[in-house]
Amino acid sequence: MKVEIWSDIACPWCHLGKSRFERALAAFPQGDAVEVVYRPFQLEPGAPAEPRPHREVLAKKFGPQAVAMDDRLAKLGAAEGVTFDFDTVLENNSLLAHRLMRFALDEYGPAAQARLKTRLMTDHFGEGMDIGDPAQLADAAAAAGLDRDAAAAFLAGDALTDEVLADLDEARSLGITAVPTFVFEGQWAVQGGQETSTFLRVLEQVAKETAAVEAPADADACADGVCEVPVERPAATA
């Protein structure tokens, strides 16, 4: 089974969703046979290159409710062992980090890419990392098991920029407007940082569907809070 996860390093729900999905994958009997690939999405593609304090950025977008939004995520994260220290989070354009993610996939494979994703989001949301700083990105690559010099050399150029931009265009063409979006076997899409139990049910259901000769023509589009739609037109949610 192949799962493509469209997400942004700058998205806290993507961080939480990754943790929950990986817990489900660990509980899934065929988890070792699941290939997970991360695809890029930018919540704010026009973000400036200079880092900005998260609290200020969110307050401008959402006003007084911004603090409550952060507090809720911090509590949900704590229950999952995921740290959100929003007082130290720096907002920045995530394109450079997405390029590094693609580099990790192409040069080291999906497992290394997943390790890098964890490191980037852990450092971004918990350690005040600037995801637009090539030196800090290279350090994160090294911590994830990649060669630091190779990562630094890659970040100094513009390789894979066109490929990442093409992936971003593909997300738009698929109708993906919210992340994380999990696409299973190129056929079913589930949006949001769902509960671990929900992800596990989806994995089990997709395994059954792909094992069947022909899926039932009248299968429900949505069940148990999980909406499954053709990847050509995934349902958009806020």
TrEMBL record:
Gene3D superfamilies, alphabetized: Glutaredoxin
Ranges where the DSBA-like thioredoxin domain occurs: 3-202
Entries under CDD domains matching the protein: DsbA_FrnE
GO terms of molecular function: isomerase activity; oxidoreductase activity
Matches recorded under SUPFAM superfamilies: Thioredoxin-like
Coiled coil start-end: none
Name under which the protein is recorded: Predicted dithiol-disulfide isomerase, DsbA family
